[in-house]
Write a structure and sequence with these properties.
dTDP-4-dehydrorhamnose reductase; oxidoreductase; NADP; Rossmann fold; 9 helices; binds NADP nicotinamide-adenine-dinucleotide phosphate; six-stranded parallel β-sheet; 18% strand
Length: 289
């Protein structure tokens, strides 16, 4: 029996992993939430990791409030960076492999072609910087670690762009949405699926765990404006959506104008195909209906 620890199991990704975990055979899951494990409590984090001979640790915790992070630098650093050093160190001591999730916001958005894993990072927000430092802390403390950068995550759980656009679309007659930021929406269910696939492939020795940085989002490209239109069309929301520029919707944390991720590496190493973003959106909206 393999032991796997899922830290942060009540977030969007954590809940999807919880939902899908039964697909793995001969694996015993331990789930923690903020209530049972606060990752800013270093001793508690170390004790939890060392409480069993875990084979794998998946970190789904994060400080994800991108704008608030500009103010709450210390807390964002503790959760997104310092905790990763502790996770890496403790995992190393017990010989556990770690899968951690990071973000497209480690890039500054100046690219004109999808970002590959080796492209130069240059975050332009506190959130992006703390996540990048977390990647580095983990990879330097535990060589058996994998960082999966993803983008524009949504699910049926928690607060996310999809749910906000449904709410605003139902409340208002007209809405302005940014069209000059381009990326790829990613359904948390698909991300959970690939993470469990990576663990399963390692256990069954189909593909040995290959540490390092990977990019994973759904396939395709969209602006927030396109994303909104797709949501509203599927949900039969008749609100008029106007494309607006970033400069007309200033936020405390700047976002990259372009953050499409190239997924060639993960597709090749793990021999997977990735769903198109609109197909996954339809799946999620069906559940929300
Ligand atoms: N959301 C996106 O658009 C997006 C985009 C790119 C990358 N990512 C990355 O994808 C990963 C998963 O994101 P997500 O959307 O699933 O995040 P999420 O829904 O915000 O979940 C994060 C979880 O971490 C928990 N948490 C916060 N502080 C904690 C602490 N001190 N100790 C323990 N748990 C704590 C949160 O608990 P509470 O909810 O109770 O606070 C929440 O359950 C993250 O690494 C994120 O950076 C997300």
């Amino acid at each position: 029996m393999k032991e796997i620890l899922i830290i942060g199991s009540e977030g969007q990704l954590g809940l999807e992993i919880k939902k899908q975990c039964k697909v793995l055979n001969k694996v015993n899951f331990t789930f923690t939430s903020l209530q049972s494990l606060d990752v800013t409590n270093t001793q508690q984090l170390v004790d939890t990791i060392k409480s069993k001979n875990f084979d794998y640790i998946v970190n789904c915790t994060a400080y994800t409030a991108v704008d608030k992070a500009e103010e709450e630098v210390e807390l964002a650093t503790k959760i997104n960076t310092s905790a990763l050093a502790t996770i890496g160190q403790s995992a190393n001591e017990i010989g556990a492999k770690v899968i951690h999730v990071s973000t497209d916001y480690v890039f500054d958005g100046s690219n004109h072609r999808p970002y590959v894993e080796t492209d130069t990072t240059n975050p332009n927000s506190v959130y992006g910087s703390t996540k990048l430092n977390g990647e580095r802390a983990l990879l330097s403390h535990n060589k058996e670690s994998m960082v999966i950068r993803t983008s524009w995550l949504y699910s049926i759980h928690g607060n996310n762009f999809v749910k906000t656009m449904i709410r605003l679309g139902n409340e208002r007659d007209e809405l302005g949405v940014i069209f000059d930021q381009v990326g790829t929406p990613t359904y948390a269910g698909d991300l959970a699926d690939i993470i469990l696939h990576i663990v399963d492939a390692d256990i069954s020795k189909v593909t040995t765990f290959e540490p390092g940085i990977y990019h994973y989002s759904n396939e395709g490209v969209a602006s927030w404006y396109d994303f909104t239109l797709a949501i509203h069309q599927k949900m039969n929301i008749s609100c008029r959506v106007n494309p607006i520029e970033t400069k007309d919707y200033p936020t405390p944390a700047p976002r990259p104008h372009y953050s499409v991720l190239n997924k060639a590496k993960i597709k090749q190493v793990y021999n997977v195909s990735i769903p198109y973003w609109k197909d996954s959106l339809d799946k999620c909206l069906l559940l929300l209906k």
